[in-house]
Amino acid sequence: MEQQQDNMITMALQDYKEGLGQFTQKMPEIAKQYNAFTEACFAEGKLSKKEKQLIALGISIYGQDEYCIIYHTKGCLDQGCTEEEILEAVGVTAAFGGGAAMSQAVTLVQEAISELNSSNMKQ
User: Which pTM does this prediction carry?
Assistant: First the structure.
């Protein structure tokens, strides 16, 4: 069962990348503008890239957007967040967002952390 969940995380990231690639081919100007906007939003500023990823993860959980939950969990790990920092941030989200946010925190976020950390060790 854990292997199947691990594959789900990897497959979701791959699906997103493929979908974004297809969208970019069909709508290059919109994709270019969107990418420029998001890059500017996530650039280092008064808030660090790490803090911005934690915020994005919280919003993703609150919005119940599974692709973004996985993507921003990866972003948190890539920016050096510890599991404890991630879980503290999702705890704040759960306090604000109630049961739906907590269900994502105790399932998808933890599955993504586990798989993404094990994938990083293999590389």
Answer: 0.86
Domain that holds residue 115: 2-122
Give me the pLDDT at residue 5, please: 54
Of the candidates 50, 118, 48, 110, the residue with the CA atom closest to the CA atom of residue 83: 110
DSSP string, 20-81: HHHHHHHSHHHHHHHHHHHHHHTSSSSS-HHHHHHHHHHHHHHTT-HHHHHHHHHHHHHTT-
Closest to 59 in 3D by CA, of 43, 44, 41: 41
CATH code for the domain of 92: 1.20.1290.10
3-state secondary structure of 79: coil
For every residue of 98-109, DSSP letters joined together read HHHHHHHIIIII
Give the tens place of pLDDT for each residue, 34-52. Answer: 999 999 999 999 999 999 9
Give 18-28 pLDDT, tens digit per residue: 999 999 999 99
Q: pLDDT tens across 52-82, in order?
A: 999 999 999 999 999 999 999 999 999 999 9
